[in-house]
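Quick one:
INPUT:
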């Protein structure tokens, strides 16, 4: 049973990692094509707030692409300096693109419901990442890990948003309705699943600690 869980975990991680890197790469389609062609529903941002748009779509994919490498145990153990440098790049990318994403939220053409979804996501993305970075600096690695997992569940919203949007439009839901739904559904379930995972891990580490022989 434990073996099966491990295999499923590995497969899940590999799929998530490949999707993260692919979506990060595809996000740069605006470079050869221009925002107006590559992401026509973002075109109004070019007039309203081009700086924030380019800060977001130019930098957020770096955070997404770097993320899977930070979870590789071997890399962390064998090349801690690489882990630390990628971590700094990841956090800096979230800082820049999170602030820009927060501002962009208020200019979305999808209305206040979607704006609230994106703005709240930006705030908790920045906060969880800030906590993770703080605990890394303090060398409180268990807490660093917990907050980084929370941050990653939110970074992964960039993947779930596009997967759900594709699935919803393929299922015949019109783009505007699908977009409203995914502005919340892309990240709330991710955050809840991560909390449930952390909660079960806390339970099992308490059980392990309780079964360990106590010093006399
Ligand atoms: C997790 C926090 C994030 C927030 C709060 C956020 C917020 C936003 C907002 C508000 C927009 C404009 C939407 C509109 O005008 O309707 C946007 C667009 C975009 N974001 Fe993010 N974003 C986040 C993460 C990411 C990540 C990690 C990536 C990496 C790929 C990313 C890539 C993009 C791209 C490429 C667009 C242009 C539209 C598209 O191609 O879908 N975002 N984001």
């Amino acid at each position: 049973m434990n073996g099966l869980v491990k295999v499923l975990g590995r497969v899940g991680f590999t799929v998530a990692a490949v999707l993260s890197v692919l979506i990060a790469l595809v996000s740069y389609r605006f470079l050869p094509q221009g925002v107006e062609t590559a992401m026509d529903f973002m075109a109004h941002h070019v007039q309203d707030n081009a700086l924030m748009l380019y800060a977001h779509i130019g930098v957020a994919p770096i955070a997404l692409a770097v993320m899977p490498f930070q979870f590789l145990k071997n890399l962390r153990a064998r090349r801690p300096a690489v882990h630390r440098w990628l971590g700094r790049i990841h956090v800096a990318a979230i800082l820049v693109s999170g602030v820009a994403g927060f501002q962009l939220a208020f200019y979305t053409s999808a209305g206040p419901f979607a704006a609230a979804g994106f703005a709240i996501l930006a705030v908790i993305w920045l906060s969880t990442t800030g906590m993770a970075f703080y605990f890394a600096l303090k060398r409180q690695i268990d807490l660093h890990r917990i907050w980084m997992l929370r941050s990653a569940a939110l970074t992964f919203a960039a993947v779930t948003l596009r997967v759900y949007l594709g699935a919803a439009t393929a299922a015949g839901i019109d783009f505007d309705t699908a977009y409203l739904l995914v502005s919340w559904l892309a990240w709330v379930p991710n955050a809840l699943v991560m909390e449930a995972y952390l909660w079960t891990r806390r339970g099992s580490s308490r059980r392990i600690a309780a079964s360990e022989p106590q010093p006399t």
